[in-house]
Specification:
The complex is a heterodimer of chains A (about 350) and B (about 300). In chain A, about 25% of the residues lie in helices and about 35% in strands. Chain A has about 350 residues and is of the alpha+beta class. In chain A, helix 2 packs across helix 3, helix 2 runs parallel beside helix 4 and helix 3 crosses helix 4. By secondary structure, chain B is an all-alpha fold. In chain B, about 75% of the residues lie in helices and about 0% in strands. Chain B is built from 13 helices and no strands. In chain B, helix 3 packs across helix 13 and helix 9 runs antiparallel to helix 10. Chain B starts with a helix and ends with a helix. Classes of the chains: A alpha+beta (about 350), B mainly alpha (about 300). At the A-B interface, strand 6, helix 2, helix 4 and helix 5 of A face helix 1, helix 9 and helix 10 of B. Bound molecules: adenosine-5'-diphosphate and magnesium ion. Adenosine-5'-diphosphate (ADP) binds next to strand 2 and helix 1 of chain A.
Chain lengths: ~350, ~300
Amino acid sequence: MAFLEINNISKSFASTVAVQDFDLQVERGELVSFLGPSGCGKTTTLRLVAGFETTTQGKIIVKGEDITNKPPNQRNVGMVFQAYALFPNMTVGGNIGFGMKVNKRPQEEIQARVDELLELIAMPGLANRYPHQLSGGQQQRVALARALALNPEVLLLDEPLSALDAKIRVVLRGEIRAIQQKLGITAIYVTHDQEEALSLSDRVVVMHQGRIEQVGPPFEIYNFPKTEFVANFVGTLNAYNAKVLDNQRNVLSIEGQDIQTAQTLGAYKNGDRVMIAIRPERLSFADGQKKVNNLACTVEEVTFLGSIVRVQVRTGEKTLYVDTFNNPYLELPRVGETKQLTFSREAVLILHP
Amino acid sequence: MGNNPVLEEKILTKRESKKGSAQPARSPRFDFNWAWLGVAPFFLFALAFLFLPSFSIVVRSFQGVDGSFTFKNIIAILTESDIINAYQASLSISVITAIGGGFFGFLLAYAVILGGMPRGMRTFMVTFSGVASNFAGVPLAFAFIATMGNAGLITRWIEAIFEINVRQMGFSIYTIWGLSIVYMYFQFPLMVLIMAPALDGLRREWREACENLGGSAWQYWRYVAFPILLPSILGTMILLFGNAFGAYATAYAFSGSFINLVTILIGAQIQGDVLYNPGLGNALALGMIIIMSVCMFGYAYMQRKTSRWVR
Ligand SMILES: Nc1ncnc2c1ncn2[C@@H]1O[C@H](COP(=O)(O)OP(=O)(O)O)[C@@H](O)[C@H]1O
Ligand SMILES: [Mg+2]
């Protein structure tokens, strides 16, 4: 039995279905992120776990105990909100110690815990500041410390960095991950930022319209997206509508050219239409014709992105992106030039609708 | 773990301060900020309609009937029992209606904003409060006299139904308490009007964070919501106090000079035929200005405290 079990929960608000058949097992000490576009039900799922919303259907179980119908103030899950959730009338110390204070813990114990947590979030000596005297990043650290103060079973974070600027965001997400691993706390992290989800999670849950699209480690989500939605949402994507030519030898046809995939097409009949995807970094320009997986293209645009160079090309109807690592001796393609694209069989991903 | 953002901020402030000090000191002669010119008309306005009259009140408080300098007026307002009573009446009525209006107004504002009323109802209540808080003066006083006065509709009605004479039983609305009730009609909506946005400013995250940390609804109000609202509540009560203290038309229309308030006394000194003594009137007004200024500073202080919290 997993540490946190979200068993087939659904949640509807009047006529809107916010979450549907959400099923997930989270192991102790794992950091799982919910990734998806705005409105896909991430916050609602998190609020169901915290107890701020009641499930329409399904169960939530922590350490074998069913908490589905417990009020939020008896659940012992810590929550970090998007922003501005610190109590403005209390100091940093007051905020961090608040949970212990309402739980009637002795003053010395509170004091010691506050100091310990301030150390943990690298803000020692700032206990007497008020929230309005802190930067956005500092406020979110304090919010994290406050949520950790009662040693919660599960830590919930709802886009905790989305109100901060890009630089601080990157620093802080690393710190959140470090603290989570140091304490070995089970955590759910909600974000709409794929880079954030990929960089700090043990597993990523990609959500779409209230449902889970795919669950897996970041590596798997990125490299082997199962659905078109996942492939599209996580990373840049070149998608093709292809026809199955030979389901035994895994041959497809796009734009009248035969291509081969390493994935098996056994589930399809010859003549079936399937969506395939190729990541930009898996495409490259060939010097001459290769034996398999060739596409003729015209260069439309070259964009320099620092460590990579993104080339936009046209093959028949489609616009594709080709990423190459930058190096000073790279010969950049010229706009209007005709080139050959090539890719490995492994690069061709079959997507399910 | 690193503490880069903290560090970065420190570096930033250092850099900024360096830049500030590196600027060549300009001669003060060229430092005049021409943008001030734009607000000059407002200063003139304030000068003409606020400071000059106040100044004239101060000056004339120290003038006798013949225009010569005297402390007589000041001594009078500190010693004459009629005047002390008037201040007492004005203060009591202001305190009563500030506390009463504040309390009930807060409850209504709470019901309107946090009571889960439909959106349309909220808008209606707030708009209505806006209108009602200006429902003062002659119409309000008349409405009361017509319903609960000696010959008022309700008074007569009660007398007819219960076959008693409430006036002989000592009932009268022409008392401090009666006038307080009349004042409530504009105090109460004013409190609703000012408290509604303050209650709206309570973030959902605060309540949820409190709940999430094991706090009860009572603890949320005790430790979070009430302390956050307190400056607004006190500030608005100060405003209500000033509002009642300065009211004149309502009281005058309601009871003539039956209830001796400071404002009514001033009116009598300045336009009165019997009591004409403008010097004393000005001294009375000076007392009011001082009390009102204290209120204004108190209100501004409370406002500043809240705005720092609720950004
Ligand atoms: N309290 C609510 N009342 C009605 N609809 C809601 C409520 N909360 C969320 N929703 C709806 O549920 C869906 C999911 O919302 P949410 O969980 O906030 O998405 P996300 O956090 O992924 O952006 C949205 O369509 C949203 O409009
Ligand atoms: Mg959300």
